[in-house]
């Protein structure tokens, strides 16, 4: 559905406010010399004062380079940038994606059944959204009940892969039954254009028992189209197709009726471009609105793989968790608002301390792909060099986000974080309740997370110099009570809102991705036989690849 979205509010960019200059002075005077180790030692109330609570998640900010003066100024900055107006604009469905004149209205997808906005256009969008949701959730239940299907393969990339993949992995414990006994579905994700991604999966699959979910907002993304075509060819060949192997020969109008029906049974699509999906041969299509951005789409029919894996009730619980975070974000004063405080910390570290990266360390096997998901969410949204008015930005924007599940990261890159010369803020994510392991295993895992945070702050100065760790290094700890649908929903919504807030402060349109488009355009050109750009290394490399 396309809605006539109102224009976004014109809010000041952070570096154009008077508070920015006050922050610069504060940084010069004292902010840059802040000693978190000293702050923790001298202030017994620091942890309690700096702890924040949001639905399903608690956050310890006390190990950050923040004092009251800094926090006060950062909160002033948020007000000076009219952040509350931006938050309202997000919820009102304003056209925040200015280059594409679209709203970024993913919050609407998680509104509970009984929610009425009181605004006719919003209620109409809600009604359409609910009908679409009902349809794909019903289908998910049908698939779950269909013993003839053992495997489901989601083919998509970027937001049409990472969001659902992270959630399915995180909620593995909620995927009922053993698929080998016909009690649940194995859910696979294929994204890479490299044929080995799909090829290796297909080796394990039975074409008569596999359902393909084609996840693509545009239904034009090269990786997804190529993989979908390869999957269609595989299904056709397995069912006796001896015709030509090229994709054009597999279009529905070229297939005999039984094979056309076969493709319609084996492939469904979640897309905003139903026409292209139909042309491919899909008949079961779950649409979603153009105001759902790719990296914010797991709440829409793009989340079908999640609903098949864990069931529609758990999918609704995921939405409810995200909605609870939406309410926190919309209604909590900025100083206690978790997404806002995380985004302000990003501004403080990136723009004042010059810290170029942030490490994500989920101490949870279920959340091991979260760093990859956040890379797209944060870097595709806020990795921009000009503001929404088209002006080049004189300030840094999104940090490089990276990471790995703890404790694996401890035995890989934590050495550099402890003793290397550059400072890398770490975001620990821990889950209080254990999963499948024993109590002892879980206690050891949590002890390691806390120990890392402590080691970063306290450091070490005894022993020979090579054992010294400077300490004083910043970290934040996010604590989930348990890894369940509601808290996973809340966690992802938290990151979405944090990304949005940082983007608004930097004056960025967080909802487009023109840099990615350039690469796509050039790849198409080269594939069609066009020469790579003149004068560079491009031609030489192409010669090697021929
Ligand atoms: O869902 P689509 O249209 O296939 O797009 C996939 C992904 O490609 C991008 O457009 C660019 O990476 C993402 O924003 C999006 O999530």
Overview of the molecule:
With 546 residues, the protein is an alpha/beta fold. The protein folds into three domains: 14-104 and 317-506, Rossmann fold; 107-310, Glucose-6-phosphate isomerase like protein, domain 1 (Rossmann fold); 516-545, no CATH class. It is 46% helix and 10% strand. It has 20 helices and eleven strands. It has helices at residues 18-29, 36-42, 46-50, 68-80, 83-92, 120-145, 162-170, 195-202, 222-238, 257-266, 274-280, 304-310, 312-331, 338-352, 370-382, 414-419, 439-458, 485-506, 514-527, 538-545, and strands at residues 51-54, 57-60, 151-155, 186-190, 210-215, 267-271, 284-287, 357-363, 400-403, 426-431, 475-480. The strands form two sheets. It has a six-stranded mixed beta sheet with strand order 1-2-11-10-8-9, with helices on both faces. Helix 6 crosses helix 12 (304-310) and helix 12 crosses helix 13. The longest helix is centred in the N-terminal third of the chain and has 26 residues, at 120-145. The radius of gyration is 25 Å and the shape is globular. The two termini are 45 Å apart. The model has no long low-confidence stretch (mean pLDDT 95). 6-O-phosphono-beta-D-fructofuranose binds at residues 157-160, 216-218, 221, 224, 294-295, 380, 513, 516.
């Amino acid at each position: 559905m396309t809605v006539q979205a109102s224009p976004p509010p014109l809010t000041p960019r952070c570096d154009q406010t008077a508070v920015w200059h006050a922050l610069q002075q504060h940084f010069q005077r004292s902010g840059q010399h802040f000693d978190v180790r000293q702050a923790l030692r001298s202030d017994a109330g620091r942890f309690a004062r700096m702890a924040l609570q949001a639905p399903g998640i608690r956050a310890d900010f006390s190990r950050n380079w923040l004092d009251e003066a800094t926090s006060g100024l950062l909160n002033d900055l948020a007000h000076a940038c009219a952040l509350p107006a931006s938050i309202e604009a997000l919820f009102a469905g304003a056209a925040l994606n200015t280059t594409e004149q679209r709203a970024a209205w993913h919050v609407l997808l998680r509104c509970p059944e009984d929610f009425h906005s009181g605004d006719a256009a919003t209620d109409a969008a809600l009604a359409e959204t609910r009908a679409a949701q009902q349809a794909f959730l019903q289908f998910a239940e049908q698939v779950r009940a269909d013993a003839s299907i053992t495997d489901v393969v989601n083919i998509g990339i970027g937001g049409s892969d990472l969001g659902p993949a992270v959630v399915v992995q995180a909620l593995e414990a909620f995927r009922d039954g053993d698929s080998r006994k016909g009690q649940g579905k194995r859910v696979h994700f294929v994204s890479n254009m490299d044929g080995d991604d799909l090829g290796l999966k297909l080796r394990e699959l039975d074409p008569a028992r596999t359902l393909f979910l084609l996840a693509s907002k545009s239904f034009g993304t090269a990786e997804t189209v190529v993989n979908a075509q390869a999957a269609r060819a595989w299904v056709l060949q397995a069912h006796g197709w001896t015709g030509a192997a090229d994709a054009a020969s597999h279009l529905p109008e070229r297939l005999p009726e039984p094979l056309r029906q076969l493709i319609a049974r084996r492939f469904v699509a979640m897309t905003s471009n139903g026409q292209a999906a139909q042309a491919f041969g899909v008949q079961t299509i779950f649409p979603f609105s153009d105001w759902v951005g790719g990296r914010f789409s797991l709440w829409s029919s793009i989340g079908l793989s999640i609903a098949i894996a864990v069931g529609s009730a758990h999918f609704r619980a995921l939405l409810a968790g995200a909605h609870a975070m939406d309410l926190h974000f919309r209604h909590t004063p900025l100083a206690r608002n978790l997404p806002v405080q995380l985004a302000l910390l990003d501004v403080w570290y990136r723009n004042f301390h010059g810290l170029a990266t942030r490490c994500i360390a989920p101490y949870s096997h279920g959340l091991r792909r979260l760093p990859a998901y956040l890379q797209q969410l944060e870097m595709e949204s806020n990795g921009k060099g000009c503001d929404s008015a088209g002006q080049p930005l004189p300030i840094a924007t999104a940090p490089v986000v990276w990471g790995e599940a703890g404790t694996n990261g401890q035995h890989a890159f934590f050495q550099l974080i402890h003793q290397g010369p550059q400072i890398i803020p770490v975001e620990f994510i821990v889950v209080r309740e254990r999963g499948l392991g024993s109590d002892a295993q879980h206690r050891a895992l949590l002890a390691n997370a806390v120990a890392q945070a402590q080691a970063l702050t306290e450091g070490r100065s005894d022993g020979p110099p090579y054992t010294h760790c400077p300490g004083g290094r910043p970290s934040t700890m996010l604590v989930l009570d348990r890894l369940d649908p509601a808290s996973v929903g809340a966690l992802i919504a938290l990151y979405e809102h944090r990304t949005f807030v940082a983007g608004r402060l930097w004056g960025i349109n967080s909802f487009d991705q023109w840099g990615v488009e350039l690469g796509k355009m050039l790849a198409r050109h080269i594939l069609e036989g066009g020469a790579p750009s003149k004068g560079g290394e491009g031609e030489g490399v192409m010669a090697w690849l021929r």
